[in-house]
Amino acid sequence: MADAAETVKKTADQATAAATSAAAKVKAQAETMQAAGTQAFREGIDKSTASMAELNAHSKKTLEAMVESVTVAQKGAEALSQQALGFAKTSWEDGVAASKELSTARSVQEFFELQTAWAKKSMERYVAELTKTNEIVTATVKDSIKPINERVTASVETFQAAR
């Protein structure tokens, strides 16, 4: 019986050793998997953080471009307003001066000659004023769209590089 007990003990010891060895292997594999999962999670968080920082920088630049565009447009509107006020004042003064001059006409013939000269002069000033206004509007639109176009170009280049 002693042999049988010793054989059972030996078998139990071997089974315990095998189970302990298998448990150690499972534990090592679990720790390896946990470390790999933790590392992958950290890398994902780092990539997400970097992407968010890049997105924030991109958004800030876009907002700055929008502010610059609006500032340029506002300056253009101010220039147009000043130009229009100046033209209105000059037109009013010229109209008053023309009225005074027309009132000094000694004949109908002279009246129509003065009126024709004044009308021709007024049309020339009006066309010149339209040209100035057109130049201001064109420059304002061009200058106000420029920062936005630059941001669109930068965005397209960024997205193409990310592909």
Would you mind describing this structure in some detail?
- With 163 residues, the chain is mostly helical.
- It has one domain (2-162).
- It is built from two helices and no strands.
- The longest helix is centred in the first third of the chain and has 102 residues, at 2-103.
- It is rod-shaped, with a radius of gyration of 44 Å.
- The mean pLDDT is 89.
Q: Any key phrases for this structure?
A:
163 residues, mainly alpha, 2 helices, 0% strand, rod-shaped
Task: Write the SSE topology.
Elements: H1 2-103, H2 108-162
Helix pairs in contact: 1-2
Report the helical percentage: over 70%
Number of domains: 1
Q: Radius of gyration, Cα only, in angstroms?
A: 44 Å
Q: Could you spell the SSE succession in H and E letters?
A: HH
Derived from helix and strand composition plus strand pairing, the structural class reads mainly alpha
Largest sheet: none
Structure annotation, total helices:
2
Classify the beta-strand content into a percent band. under 5%
Distance between the ends: 77 Å
Number of beta strands: 0
Summarize the structure.
With 163 residues, the chain is mostly helical.
